[in-house]
Amino acid sequence: MWAGVFERFRRFHADCNLTPDQIDDGYKKALGVCRSVERAYYGEPAEKATGFLVGSWGKSTQLRPPNDVDLFVRLPWDVYTRFEQRAGNKQSALLQEVKSALGVTYPQTNMRGDGQVVMVQFNTILIEVLPVFQLSTGQYLMPDANDGGHWKMVDPVAQINFVDQVNQKTNGNLRAVTKMMKLWSREQNVPIKSFVLELLLTEFFASYGYGPYSYYWYDFFIRDAFRFLVSKAWGTVIVPGTNEVIPLGGDWLSRAQRALDIALQACAYEHADMIIHAGDEWQKIFGTRIPRSD
After folding, report:
1. For residue 45, what pLDDT band results from cuts at 50, 70 and 90?
2. Is residue 58 in a domain?
3. Do 142 and 176 reside in the same domain of the chain?
4. Is 90 exceeded by the pLDDT of residue 114?
5. Are residues 140 and 167 in the same domain?
6. Quick check: 48 pLDDT over 80?
């Protein structure tokens, strides 16, 4: 039984992974942007690296093709002090200053400050630059220009470490399934943030008994992940490091419930070795990138 599951999900996982060229392009673009900010605020590239990747690139949960790269760039504390002496929306002013600094290096590149980031739109990928100030705790202050402006404390390292720990515990399956579920979100226009979906799946796998198993179990992984999502509607998720509580709402619930219903049917077909029928069901969730047959 389940003759098609292993190969179907092995190939699906491979298709979700970035190509070497996409990885190289993302890293090179991010490094160039980081060096540009360093020249503006340190004179030359800093002796100690000031930038590092966060978000899906920091957690290695990027889905192919990648949409954007989130880049933290640490600024000197005297910059924070300088902006704190200003009136008005200090955070918006900081983002505009960083945008202007980047414009020296990239005068022909479309960019804009937007809420918490400076967006640098290259032809191949978007780099989202987050200027931050490191605290003695290892956490960071980042600007949020929304609602008049304020500083927000974040801890991306704690989030990355949480994903690393659970991914190791699950033999790499957390990252693989996260990419698959992101494709579902992309294909079905699910109104849930990628960041929130990552948190939910990490929470799910942290206590999932089958987590370390092979591709042979991936039909159950997907089914049970959707079941978990459905159970979390209108609940909350807690951000590691800062313990920020994020309300989940339920605008996405109908899509998750539909995907769960389809996954249940797909699992039944997999059990009966009706491989093509199972593939037809999985494609209703993930689109044609998941193989119809093994």
Report:
1. low
2. yes
3. no
4. no
5. no
6. no
Q: What's the pLDDT tens digit per position in 54-68?
A: 999 999 999 999 999
Q: Where are the beta strands (DSSP E) in 32-159?
A: 51-54, 68-74, 110-114, 117-121, 126-134, 140-144, 150-154
Phi, psi of 128 (to 5 degrees): -105, 110
Of 96, 125, 154, which closes a domain? 154
Instruction: Please tell me whether residue 280 adopts helix, strand or coil conformation.
Output: helix
Domain check: are 162 and 147 in the same one?
no
Give CA–CA dist 129/131, Å, rounded: 6
User: Is pLDDT of 162 > 70?
Assistant: yes
Q: Are residues 118 and 217 in the same domain?
A: no
How does 159-194 read in b/e, with b if 16+ C-beta sit within 10 Å? bbebbeebbeebeebbbbbbbbbbbbbebbebebeb
- Domain tally, the chain: 2
DSSP-assigned states of every residue in 131-169: EEEE-TTS-EEEEE-GGG-EEEEE-HHHHHHHHHHHHHH
pLDDT at 1 over 80: no
Identify whether residues 172 and 274 lie together within a single domain.
yes
Q: In the listed set 135, 154, 173, which residue is the last one of a domain according to the structure? A: 154
| Residue 95 and residue 101 in contact, taking contact as beta carbons nearer than 8 Å | no
Residue range of the domain that includes 233: 5-16+158-289
Identify which of 109, 179, 111, 117 has the alpha carbon closest to the alpha carbon of residue 145: 117
In this prediction, residue 2 carries a pLDDT of 87
Do 136 and 184 have their domain in common? no
CA angle 109, 182, 129 (to 5 degrees): 30
